[in-house]
Amino acid sequence: MPLLFRSPGHAALLLRVALGVMWITHGLVLKLMTFGIDGFAGWMSSQGLPSVLAWPVVLAEIAGGTAIVLGVHGRWVSLALLPILLGATHIHAGNGWVFTNPNGGWEYPVFLIVASIAHFLLGDGVLALKRERL
User: Fold this and answer.
1) Band of the pLDDT at 2, cuts 50, 70, 90?
2) 3-class SS at 7?
3) pLDDT at 120
4) Which of 4, 20, 31, 117 could cross-link 68 (Cys pair, CB 3.0–4.6 Å)?
5) Is pLDDT larger for residue 42 or for residue 133?
6) Which residues lie below 8 Å from residue 28, measured CB to CB, with a gap of 6+?
7) How confident is the model at residue 104 (pLDDT cuts 50, 70, 90)?
8) Secretion signal: which residues (predicted)?
9) DSSP 69-91
10) How many Cα atoms sit within 13 Å of 78 on the Cβ side?
């Protein structure tokens, strides 16, 4: 395989796009299109969280995911979205390891935390619109 496709910059690009698409689909497809904002707000309330946070969470996921995909300060956006993943981990912690358990397990949000930290450490990679170096 050519050296071009084995570079850390390309690996960071793959991670960045996968992570960003995950955020966009969770905000847009899962929360808005599947549950609706009222459904998501009701679920948040049932978990003991303020339902008023529904819109900010959805908007953060969609805007943050878009910034990550485009590579616009993506590594910092990955860090900024960690509280959402920590909250998801907390909510799913009592459900067990596997996400297919009733109400979902905790391995997926923990994996995404690790992926987000890896993205921060690697950087945005190639084809990023606004890369920053540490």
Assistant:
1) low
2) coil
3) 97
4) 20
5) 42
6) 61, 62
7) confident
8) none
9) HHTBSHHHHHHHTHHHHHHHHHH
10) 30
Could you please report the per-residue DSSP string of 12-23?
HHHHHHHHHHHH
Q: Give per-residue burial for 93-113: e unless 16+ CB within 10 Å, then b.
A: eeeeeeeeeeebbbebbbebb
**Tokens at residue 48, please?**
């003991």
- Rounded Cα distance between 118 and 72, Å, is 17
For the CA atoms of 53, 56, 59, 65, what is the dihedral angle to 10 degrees? -90
How far is Cα 134 from Cα 25, in angstroms, rounded to an integer? 29
Counting beta carbons within 10 angstroms of the beta carbon of residue 34, is it exposed (0 to 12), middle (13 to 18) or buried (19 or more)? exposed
